[in-house]
Amino acid sequence: MKQNQRVPDPCVLVIFGASGDLTRRKLVPAIWHLQEQGRLPEAFALVGVARREWDDNYFRQQMREGLAEFVGELDESVLDAFLAKLHYVSGDPADPTTYVALKNQLETLDREHGTGGNRCFYCSVPPQIYLGIVEQMGKAGLNHQHQDGQGWCRVIVEKPFGHDFDSAHNLNEVLHNVFAEEQIYRIDHYLGKETVQNILVFRLGNSIFEPLWNRRYVDHVQITAAEGVGVEHRAGYYDQSGALRDMIQNHLLQVLCVIAMEPPSSFDAESVRLEKLKVLKAIRPILIGQVVRYAVRGQYGPGTANGEAVAGYLQENEVPADSRTETYAALEFTVDNWRWQGVPFYVRTGKRMEKRTSTITIQFSQPPHLIFGQTDQMPPSTLTIRIQPEEGISLSFNGKVPGPDVRLDTVNMDFSYAESFGGRTPEAYETLILDCLLGDATLYSDSDWIEKSWQLLMPVLEAWKTTSSGAVPSYPAGSCGPNEADALLSEDWRTWAAL
Ligand SMILES: NC(=O)c1ccc[n+]([C@@H]2O[C@H](COP(=O)([O-])OP(=O)(O)OC[C@H]3O[C@@H](n4cnc5c(N)ncnc54)[C@H](OP(=O)(O)O)[C@@H]3O)[C@@H](O)[C@H]2O)c1
After folding, report:
1. 175 in a domain, yes or no?
2. Domain containing 213: what range?
């Protein structure tokens, strides 16, 4: 999204949790792609840290296999040169001696490879380990950066950022004890997706749509993130989390903010974050007594996926038989400001839905006066932004069916990323890691945004926690969610867009 070919300073990227799934599947492939595109400095090194007793060679071998699996066929000589930049420190993140060994390794790399004392630390470990790592880094003096901009130090924190408001606030406090806010990069990979970034370009890089982007012309907005898969191997984490925490607190509220925010005066971290925070502050809190009206949850039961019978959530491995964790959540938000007064924002997410799709639907208002003999059945014009798959934007509106009568039908204008731009779309992690190495936090969340988003959702979490809030509605795997979610919109005489 930024100017092309920015290359970071010489630096070292340290990954805590380097033996894990995220490192192998996403982080190292992203770094490979950055290297391939010449987006990394010549003096670059990656240091993996984890408890497993691996050494440099074994780590490189593991990453070689990961790249073969997740990137595909690679030029062996280029790959060897890339892997030579990878190093490994074995140690428990709870043990202070791990940080002594890490510090030694970093100093050696600075000396031998000219990485200039610039470090980015990536916390890719389970969330309960973040606090300990941050505290130990502080004690080991790994948090310092020089005022002159040489020898910078940044830390990337993975999601989930907290489990509720209190834990997120506590994590922010611990981070702020050790790092300045501008050193902290809280990742939300949705913001790194090309299509999400494109929302701002689409809105503000053209003068066609922005005049329509308000309560005068928009009837309502829908934001959907539907997954076809179930809980897969993540039941241990997911059952403690649920759809609201896993998807809405972070990804979907971020998307809502990008859709609803006022144009910032410039595309920099401070201006963009300020406008996004203003949106959260303008969202009308859902009070605990209003949860039944404005929030719906669900849990998938047995059903079908890709034509095959699949288990319900309660039958999945590691899911307690009496779990009340929601695998589906839908909420109606009201944004109390001049631009959006009276325009509901409906947000929904679920697992084991009919299909995998993440879309934003802007439904425009009906024309004020219908002159073609049509009634209110005339389909409204809609703008659909497809985040995944088949990334693109479609405008659907009414056209005249050729013939002697004036008959209307819906037609589409389509923009497809793949057709227009071809090539490989960068993964979100590429964009975000590069931005952090460049010191650009525009696409990262700040502490105020995180805490405000939790604050907004706490009444819903509180209401859903108690068994007195009733049974969790069930929906068949492979469907569009529970019937109760349809009622959320039908109360307002609206319906969900097709998945
Ligand atoms: N995987 C994904 O697709 C994904 C997506 C979004 C966000 N995330 C987030 O990214 C982070 C990493 O995800 P992941 O899937 O890679 O996690 P993971 O595989 O469960 O854990 C990463 C590594 O952390 C170390 N670790 C695990 N438990 C530990 C403990 N009790 N004490 C110290 N080290 C421990 C392990 O290495 P050793 O045993 O060798 O120490 C493990 O290889 C998590 O916060 C996750 O929520 C992951």
Report:
1. no
2. 191-490
Q: Are 5 and 34 in contact (CB under 8 A)?
A: no
Q: Are residues 135 and 199 in the same domain?
A: no
Ligand 1 site residues (CB inside 6 A) read 17, 19-23, 50-52, 93, 124-127, 129, 158-160
Q: Which spans in 140-220 are helix H?
A: 165-178, 189-192, 194-204
Residue type, 336: D
| 153 and 236 fall within a common domain | no
The total domain count for the chain is: 2
Q: Is the dihedral of CA 358, 364, 365, 370 positive or negative?
A: negative
- Predicted confidence at residue 374, as pLDDT, reads 66
Same domain, 197 and 154: no
How far from chain centre, in Å, is Cα 158?
10
Q: Are residues 450 and 323 in the same domain?
A: yes
For the CA of 160, the closest atom of ligand 1 is 47
Q: Is residue 261 part of a domain?
A: yes
* Residue 128 alpha carbon, nearest atom of ligand 1: 31
3-state SS class at 445: strand
| Active-site residue flag, 189 | no
For residues 445 and 299, membership in a common domain is answered with: yes
Specify whether the CB–CB gap between 47 and 102 falls below 8 A: yes
Whether a cis peptide bond, with omega within 30° of 0, leads into 285 is: no
Confidence (pLDDT) at 336: 98
18 alpha carbon to ligand 1 midpoint, in Å?
8
Closest CA to 247 of 179, 328, 172: 328
Distance in Å, CA 482 to ligand 1 centroid: 32
Catalytic residue among 33, 189, 220, 251: 251
pTM (2 d.p.): 0.94
Protein residue with its CA nearest to atom 45 in ligand 1: 126
Domain of 27, CATH number, reads 3.40.50.720
Which H/E stretch holds residue 135? helix 130-139
Domain assignment of residue 362, yes or no: yes
- The per-residue pLDDT for 145 is 81
Shared domain for 217 and 361, answered yes or no, is yes
- Co-location of 351 and 440 in the same domain: yes
Q: Which atom of ligand 1 is nearest to the CA of 52?
A: 40
| pLDDT < 50 regions, the chain | 1-3
What is the side-by-side strand order in the sheet with 119-123? 86-90, 44-50, 11-16, 119-123, 153-157, 184-186
- Token digits of residue 13: 């990227």
Asked whether residue 138 falls in the same domain as residue 211, the answer is no
